[in-house]
User: Fold this.
Amino acid sequence: MSEAKLREELYAANENRAIIYKLIFDAMVDEFGLEKAKEVMKKGIYKRGEQIGENFKKFAPADFKGLCDAFIGGIPDDSKMFAPTITRCDEGGLDIEFDNCPLKNAWRDMGCSDEECATLCEVAGIIDYGTFQGAGFHFEMTALPEGSKEKCYLKVRAKK
Assistant:
């Protein structure tokens, strides 16, 4: 298989993940209402994050360089898929901006409104909380407006 074909399939798999999240979330909203759907979906996604976080426990409480290399090194397509920019990596913490999100791109392609995308990002983004908190770090995530585009900003610190 060519590298181009493999890359195409990788991006299609992430688009499929976004579509599945949206369809399951919509079915749960129909069945349980918005708040309960968010609560239940977040529980499952957080648990998956905790599983991923097992790979990063060796960097807790404060090996941010090791954490950065391992985390960024695990982003598909040589990290191009999410286009991270490290804005801080020192003894005080790790800060990462993501310039791209294949999940949000897929939701926009599906015709989701900004509000729907924000809700789906809130739900899907909980995986990072599970990952970093599960690994033993303090973690915060925010979306930063930049023109008409939002970036996700991850802030990892030593657990207090």
